Write a sequence for this structure.
């Protein structure tokens, strides 16, 4: 067993140990970590650093391809690719803590890793100085293709927002390879160890002489090795030969575009200088391409399948040029041809085509696409999302839809976003029968589309629209996102100071319905009082009986506004437990909350709380305002239970203000409540009313009771 295979074997054991025992502190896990640390120390004993790179299902150790086939190597490759990591660079002196952090990165599921900020963030948290992420990528390089750090393409799993794949390659007179953001790269006159080439046409002899100097610089300075992190924009002398050749070829082909050079003579001259046969053919092919006219390029791409042989950067640049020239039909033909690559048998062809469509998906916003091309791109990507059978290539389809979504939202094409995403949701659900990962694909996409930055953008556009228009346009999309959107909406609600916007957010959460319940449950625990209040209002509006415990708990909240909302929610939820909790809370609350509790009990006909309500109707010395007593008396009549007759009758019998008597206002309220019970047909209420009428003189109470008590028919 080679040292590196032993390393990956011990790494796998450590990762599985932590997964099994749930902690790096467990004795078994600790033993595996110690063995891993010892093996790592042995590997680094004779070298200052070790670079491990995974690219296209292959492992490179210090630039050398490992050709062994071993289960642990396959496991290691899959772990890094799932987390979109290129690899690690480990230096002599690496500490057990740093190795433990590498293990923890591999223990985390890809989504959990992304949620935690990514691998780079986890390493920075312990100030790791002997281990870091590698940004090197090895690829099979075709004519003019540019290789850039992988993190400029898809990141280490922590990226959010749109995805821009690939470099903006420099093909100008002094250009070089560009970085993914379009910045300067390594090229002629810009570092990279190459001499400057003069601008403008020159004689053939002068052109060949200049190219000779350029070739000597390349062949003399690029003798293999790998890129060192951080040197990608430096001298270029430590770049791989393949990478430096791309810079060389790109500049030579551009330089020769306007020069009259005999290619046969050039071939002989370069061959004598040490340019390999393959590299020579590639270079001459690049020169030939630069000399083709527009119509010839279109024909070769379509008829000779050159579209799959050229570097994607050249293909995409050419398509964009056609769009700029308003040749939309030709651009559409090329995009359609490129789309066939998404369904090829070759994984490499599908992967390359998928990478190209990630870029194309950004064009809706910049530079903008004709409607027919945009519709074509949507159709191609939707079909690919449904049909792709390889999960790693399918991830690129998800990335493309992220970019499409950003473009739709930027242009406020909300209905279109909703319609297409609904199709993706249906396709994902149907695909679950073929492969479990397909069933999870839409959920993963929805999680990315509801990231905090994207939701902030979406809500800003929603606020800018008229309330009803915004609701009809945006609520269906938010409902499609379900729980994920509800969580973001409630987060926004907790921070929003504008009352009008808070109202919009509440309506948006309500439109989501039951999928919002988990987020509402969490919101009731927030320290922000108005978030708790709004969550309780929504719990009541949605009749979320599963969250009744949250409303009960809120009855004891410090803020009376929250307690009132809790009472309203319980009134809508109903149930014996709610009645009891509301009844028990009556005596301990201030008048405003008592009024809310009484309203809730009236709405839910809470007869089990009649004893507590009756207690509230009793006269209290120093109470002053009788508004709560009057409301409690009214509720006794509204509940409609015979249990309320006794306390009402007791109030009616207490005449006069002296000796504990009740005021006319209280007695009149009790008479109305008793009359309401009588109107319901309760025999006991009729008997009680007749008894009061018999002893009551002419007055308000007698008249109220008589109106509710039909006269008895005369005896025959």
């Amino acid at each position: 067993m080679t040292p590196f295979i032993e390393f990956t074997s011990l790494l796998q054991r450590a990762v599985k140990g932590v997964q099994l025992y749930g902690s790096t502190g467990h004795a078994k896990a600790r033993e595996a970590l110690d063995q891993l640390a010892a093996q790592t120390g042995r590997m680094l004993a004779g070298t200052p650093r070790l670079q491990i790179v995974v690219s296209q299902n292959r492992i490179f150790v210090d630039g050398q391809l490992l050709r062994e086939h071993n289960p642990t190597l396959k496991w290691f490759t899959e772990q890094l690719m799932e987390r979109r990591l290129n690899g690690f660079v480990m230096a002599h002196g690496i500490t057990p803590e740093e190795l433990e952090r590498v293990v923890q990165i591999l223990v985390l599921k890809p989504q959990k890793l992304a949620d935690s900020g990514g691998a780079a963030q986890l390493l920075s948290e312990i100030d790791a100085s002997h281990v870091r992420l590698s940004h090197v990528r090895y690829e099979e390089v075709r004519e003019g293709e540019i290789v850039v750090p992988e993190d400029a393409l898809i990141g280490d799993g922590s990226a959010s927002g749109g995805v821009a794949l690939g470099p903006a390659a420099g093909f100008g007179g002094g250009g070089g390879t560009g970085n993914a953001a379009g910045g300067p790269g390594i090229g002629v006159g810009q570092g990279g160890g190459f001499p400057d080439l003069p601008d403008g046409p020159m004689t053939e002899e002068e052109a060949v002489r200049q190219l000779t100097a350029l070739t000597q610089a390349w062949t003399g300075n690029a003798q293999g090795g790998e890129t060192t992190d951080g040197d990608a924009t430096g001298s270029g002398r430590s770049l791989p030969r393949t990478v430096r050749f791309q810079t060389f070829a790109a500049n030579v082909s551009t330089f020769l575009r306007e020069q009259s050079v005999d290619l046969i003579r050039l071939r002989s001259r370069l061959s004598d200088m040490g340019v390999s046969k393959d590299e020579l053919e590639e270079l001459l092919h690049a020169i030939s391409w630069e000399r083709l006219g527009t119509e010839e390029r279109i024909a070769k791409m379509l008829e000779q399948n050159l579209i799959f042989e050229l570097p994607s950067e050249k293909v995409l640049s050419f398509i964009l040029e056609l769009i700029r020239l308003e040749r939309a039909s030709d651009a559409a033909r090329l995009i359609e041809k490129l789309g066939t690559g998404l369904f090829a048998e070759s994984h490499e062809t599908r992967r390359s085509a998928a990478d190209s469509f990630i870029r194309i998906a950004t064009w809706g916003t910049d530079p903008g696409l004709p409607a027919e091309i945009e519709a074509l791109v949507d159709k191609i990507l939707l079909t690919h999302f449904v049909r792709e059978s390889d999960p790693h290539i399918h991830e690129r389809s998800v990335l493309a839809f992220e970019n499409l979504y950003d473009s739709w939202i930027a242009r406020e094409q909300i209905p279109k976003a909703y319609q297409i995403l609904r199709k993706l949701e249906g396709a994902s659900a149907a695909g679950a029968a073929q492969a479990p990962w397909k069933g999870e694909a839409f959920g993963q996409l929805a999680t990315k589309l509801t990231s905090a930055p994207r939701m902030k953008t979406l809500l800003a556009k929603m606020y800018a629209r008229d309330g009803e228009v915004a609701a009809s346009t945006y609520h269906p999309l938010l409902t499609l996102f379900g729980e994920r959107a509800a969580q973001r909406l409630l987060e926004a609600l907790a921070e929003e100071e504008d009352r009008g916007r808070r109202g919009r957010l509440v309506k948006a959460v309500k439109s989501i319905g039951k999928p919002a319940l988990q987020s509402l449950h969490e919101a009731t625990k927030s320290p922000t009082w108005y978030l708790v209040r709004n969550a309780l209002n929504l719990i009541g509006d949605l009749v979320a009986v599963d969250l009744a415990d949250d409303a009960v708990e809120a009855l004891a909240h410090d803020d009376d506004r929250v307690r009132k909302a809790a009472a309203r929610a319980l009134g809508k939820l109903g149930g014996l437990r709610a009645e009891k909790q509301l009844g028990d809370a009556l005596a301990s609350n201030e008048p405003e909350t008592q009024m809310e509790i009484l309203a809730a009990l009236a709405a839910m006909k809470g007869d089990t709380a009649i004893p507590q309500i009756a207690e509230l109707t009793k006269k209290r010395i120093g109470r002053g305002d009788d508004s709560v007593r009057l409301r409690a008396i009214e509720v006794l009549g509204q509940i409609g239970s015979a249990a309320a007759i006794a306390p009402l009758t007791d109030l009616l019998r207490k005449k006069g203000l002296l000796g504990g008597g009740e005021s006319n206002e209280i007695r009149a309220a009790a008479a109305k409540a008793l009359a309401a019970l009588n109107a319901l047909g309760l025999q006991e209420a009729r008997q009680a009313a007749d008894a009061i009428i018999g002893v009551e003189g002419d007055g308000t109470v007698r008249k109220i009771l008589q109106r509710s008590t039909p006269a008895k028919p005369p005896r025959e």
Observations:
- The chain is about 60% helix and 5% strand.
- Confidence is low (pLDDT under 50) at residues 139-195, 221-244.
- The longest strand covers residues 49-55.
